[in-house]
Amino acid sequence: MFGDRLRDLRKGHNLTQAQLAEQLEVSASAIGMYEQGRREPDNAFLAKLSAFFHVSTDYLLGIPAQRELSGLIDGFTRRLEEQEDLMFRGRPLTQTEREKLATAIRVAVAVSVPADLEGGTR
């Protein structure tokens, strides 16, 4: 379960095992072993993953299978800003246009989320 979740999150963020390993300051082989279920994470590594991917440790462990919306939005907008070959209506978007689009998405979410959900926990 944990290995599948880790692989799905990593691929969902368009990261290789080596890239994720570098971000988390572990070896690429450790990431591979976690994903294959040949190694179990300790609490410190779970906390690091949780913060990096903006998901709860419960999600990582499969209890229950819920993801924090803010984490999904953060990941999506980050990828949007980084995607250099992104096109709209047949025309490549500039870095500034991609950043504005990501900001617009964040603003739309901010005004759409009910006030009682703001500041909720993961």
Automatic annotation (TrEMBL):
Record bears the keyword DNA-binding: yes
Coiled-coil region(s): none
Gene3D superfamilies reported for this sequence: lambda repressor-like DNA-binding domains
Record key words, sorted: DNA-binding
Domain HTH cro/C1-type: 6-60
Cited SMART domains: HTH_XRE
GO molecular function annotation: DNA binding
Record's keyword annotation contains Secreted: no
Organism domain of life: Bacteria
Transmembrane segments: none
Protein name per UniProt: Helix-turn-helix transcriptional regulator
Species this protein is from: Candidatus Gallacutalibacter pullicola
